[in-house]
Amino acid sequence: PTYMLIEFPQYLAKDNMRKHERYKTKIPIHYNKIGKPTASATICDLSLGGALIAHTDPLAAGETIQITVEWKELGVAQTVLEATVQNVRDAAHTKKGAIFSGVMFWNKADKVPPGLQQIVDHLVKESRS
User: I need a labelling partner for 94 at 20 to 30 A (CA). Which of 45, 55, 100, 105 fits?
Assistant: First the structure.
């Protein structure tokens, strides 16, 4: 009779399927939907192409938001990033009613805003040390 033997792998490789590497962080930000009041949030991970943000005001996939980030210790003045909400994760399992949304930044002509580049460079340096 014919048989099949299935083994567990000896190692697991993690492959990054994103265009840009993401870095864990906790950066307080403010965001607003176009024409709406400003709300507070936190960037949980960040890359040159997008971020995962934790917030309490509801967002929907496809919405356009403006994110304002400032990091005085790095010398980053207020940088405004336009982004599109790509996905919204279920908030039922989170603490304190936080909602997590993935956003993709709009980079005009592949130019990264200097403030964003400076923050990501700092996170790259931190991750290597």
Answer: 105
